[in-house]
Amino acid sequence: MGKNILVTGGAGFMGSWLVDELIRRGHSVSSVDDLSGGYMRNVSKECRFTKGDLRDSDLVNRLVKGVDIIYHLAAYAAEGQSVFSPISINDINIKPMNNLLVAAVNNGVERFVFTSSMAVYGNQPAPFSEEMARLPEDPYGAGKAYCENMLEIFRAAHDLDYVIIRPHNVYGPRQNIADPFRNVIGIWINRLMSNRAPIVYGNGEQVRAFSYIEESTDAIANAGFAPGARNEIINVGSPERVTINEACSKVLRLMASEQRPEYVPPRPQEVKVAYSTTEKSERLLGYSNRHTLEEGIACMIEWAQGMGPQEPSYRLPLEIVKSAPRVWVDKSM
Ligand SMILES: NC(=O)c1ccc[n+]([C@@H]2O[C@H](COP(=O)([O-])OP(=O)(O)OC[C@H]3O[C@@H](n4cnc5c(N)ncnc54)[C@H](O)[C@@H]3O)[C@@H](O)[C@H]2O)c1
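Above: query sequence and nicotinamide-adenine-dinucleotide SMILES. Below: predicted holo structure tokens.
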């Protein structure tokens, strides 16, 4: 039987894919987004959409009434920027969580699915597995670690069931390519569409496992229902590892570009090697990697070229300018 579901961040990249998938599965879905980073063009006409800020506890109480499952995706997810804008980023990422947790308990929500991040692992040796300690290296990761811990506390104190998802480096159509602070593949594609060189921080030998949106969405949708996922922490993402240089070469080749990467100094606190285990998500959420990185990038390029280049949008100010990357201070992304 269909459930009443609330998806936060429903106008964003991952939230909008999730809303579509849950509607396709026959659920009654409402979504909320303040459109600070999302777009109305992503919002399904088949969901009840509210434009609003989740820092408003009255709004959150109204939205959670009658809801069976919450998927909380809304966030300001610029991990690198969080080192330089910790006040506003923590405010956005923590207050909504507390509002939603209290409303979930008071309204008898059955399950609370939270998209945390691989950022909670910090600089431990990869692959990151779920039983490793939370040792974040930046304010974004610290905020996600706080939210995870609050879910565990609310489980113990108030019997609220949760699933903590730790996605990593998700990319694909609908990603905000105008954000200069995050989503490296989107930033490269956007720059290349206006014939500007792709920027690489450091030597480009950082290792990541970029994860295509479609399969990440399926696994996150399953998290609301899979019996074995109850009160579990689960990594979600691709097992295919690449260096930033390799990923950049693929983008350049697929866009038939003559440009070469422009290397700029490394970002402070950036974790060099970051990828996760996939066994638990395969077992509990049926995760299966269906797109190679090349296939996924090709889909994203086709979508981005349909929109054309986007003007970079520097939404949140840098609160600490000293030692911030020059390309951010100068707004030259
Ligand atoms: N994309 C990734 O690679 C990735 C990796 C790990 C974790 N995550 C997490 O997954 C979630 C979704 O990420 P995404 O890539 O889709 O980001 P996104 O920026 O596209 O979506 C987040 C949405 O939240 C909305 N939002 C922000 N603050 C809000 C507020 N106070 N009230 C209401 N809405 C608000 C934004 O407008 C945006 O549409 C986030 O929690 C992020 O931390 C993403």
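The first helix runs from residue 13 to 24.
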